[in-house]
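Predict the holo structure. Ligand: manganese (II) ion.
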Amino acid sequence: MSVQADIDAVVAALRGHDRFLVTSHENPDGDALGSLLAMQLVLDALDKDSVMLLAGATPLPVEFRFLSLTERGLLRERPSDHATRVLVAVDCAQESRIGDPGLLPSVPLSVNIDHHHDNTRFADVNLVVADVSSTGELLADLLGPLGVALDPELAEALYTAIVTDTGRFQYQSTTPHTLRLAADLVEAGADLHKVFQGVYESMEFAKLKLLARALEHATVHEGGRVVVSSLVRSDFDDAGAVEPYSEGIIDYLRAVEGAELAVLVREPPREDGPRRKASLRSALDELDVSAIARRFGGGGHRQAAGFSSDLELAEITRIVLDEYHAQRDGRASS
Ligand SMILES: [Mn+2]
């Protein structure tokens, strides 16, 4: 199906139903939260009965507190009437990312709007455009077809999604269209400076201390082309940090001169789930870190991916380096 056909199908699904449940992925980032709120505001504008759900108990990252998610009734558990609502998942590459097993099969219809290239098209209606900067950009492009006008709150939610997922308009997914769209959002009332202060200048002291630990533990491999770091349970405990505080730390590792691959392995300070989680970043066009993540059952984008594992740090590092070599060798021989 063409993208246009997918857009038409999403517009028809949103227009043609009255009750919705909007959701995004666990451990949400700016694109997830901005897109979640934006979708809710779009459905409000269309006079629909919609509620937002973010499964899991992880506290919302404080840097996104300025978004009116709580004020607008964000749920952390599925509502009792979920079986009567159309599910709209934004920024979720797989059904499992919703974090509420069994929710998808229980709803009458599901809509999946996302930009991850490994999205499994798990819903009934799927709009997946892999080369778009963010789910926020994808949603912004739906406003015209839906006949919804921007207002300051909607513009700010979309701007937040886009500015965070583009690394403040620096990643390669940032296009002239992305920048023009950002200008439209600022013109419509998105407060650029407020978003900057909220997202980038509200770091808790504990997060700073956790960052210090990660920088201290950083090691280089492959003559400096690979930078690896780790955060163990005691690092989180000593810093007084919760799991979401590790978000963004990997960007410091990727920024090292000559680094092609950055790896951050962490032991989340909680009892359930896999022992370790890893984030991967590529600073090289030809290096696809989502392929490395898939080796561990994870996924993501070519330049940013992640996975969970019960393996020891040394074992994870060894396999990642093997996969990195395999890709290098593949490129050398092609
Ligand atoms: Mn995203």
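The radius of gyration is 20 Å. The chain has two domains: 3-200, 205-333.
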